[in-house]
Design a protein that fits this description.
Largest sheet: 7 strands, mixed
InterPro entries: CorA_cytoplasmic_dom (IPR045861), CorA_TM1_TM2 (IPR045863), MgTranspt_CorA/ZnTranspt_ZntB (IPR002523)
Subcellular location: Cell membrane
Number of strands: 7
Membrane topology: Multi-pass membrane protein
Helix content: 55-70%
Structural class: alpha+beta
Main location: membrane
Organism: Jatrophihabitans telluris
Order of helices and strands: EEHEHHEEEEHHHHHHH
CATH topology of the largest domain: Beta Polymerase, domain 2
Length: 329
Amino acid sequence: MTITGVRTRLWRSGVLEKEDFPFADISDYVCQDDCLVWIGLRSPDAEVLNGLAEELSLDPLAVEDAIAHRERPKASHYDSHTFLSAYALELDHETSELKQTQVSAFVLPHAMVSVHTEDWFDIDAVLRRWDQDSELIKLGSKTLAYHLLDYLVDGHFDVIQSLDDEIEALEDVLFDDSPNAAQKNHLQRRTFALRKALVQARRVILPMREVLNTMVRRDSVMPEPLRPYFEDLYDHVLRASEWTESLRDMISSVFETNLSLADARLNTIMKKLTSWAAIIAIPTAVTGFYGQNVPYPGFGQHWGFATSSAIMVGLVVSLYVLFKKKEWL
């Protein structure tokens, strides 16, 4: 009987023997010491997962975590298996929206069950890694878990690199001498979108340190030849975490700098408006004074008009030169 969304593989002594064999044959292979079985479930229904859990003695709490949404990345050891929960990430470069899907795995002595829900998660890429590393397959189910986690961490790095590039691209717009309204609006929206994506990525990347630490430090049955691979992956996770922290500082700096530049531009505009208002006030004051209905020096004389004009021009030019020196204009 073929069940939708279920894929299977069988290795015997490290050599791939069968693929997509009947679901009912799983129990016949997992009890054999020279066999290694992978069962891949995509959006499994409760009947399939519960049936498999009963057949392989999977812990009910772990089964519940595998199908629950928004579980925190973690690694838990049970009597018969180790349960892993992590996230695959993908960044939409057009909208800066971060897609994420939970990927869970039950690691048994001679089998691994993986569970994911989204179609965009490329499980075939994980299978290709298994095919390319047939020597490690001989070490058992921990090898399958290693390549799955390694693929997820590589995806984290791709997302972080994309976020880094996007944040650097914001600097070109941020320090534009004369940004228009559309550029300002784009910068604000892009900054907010990247900040949101970074927060979401940080929530699933930072806990990966605990996942790998549990696998490396607390797994007493870890094959020794495989331990250096997990330790190297742990170093990658630490680097991804540190990179995420630095990006958080960068996006915060961009956000704060944008506010500071907006204030600076506003101050510049206010200085210009104030300067021009002061310049315009001079002729207004002079013409207002000479427009009084009382006699004044030069009243009704040509030299009086010339004097008032000279006063206006002189004071206006003086203020203009003064404001230019102070870079207010």
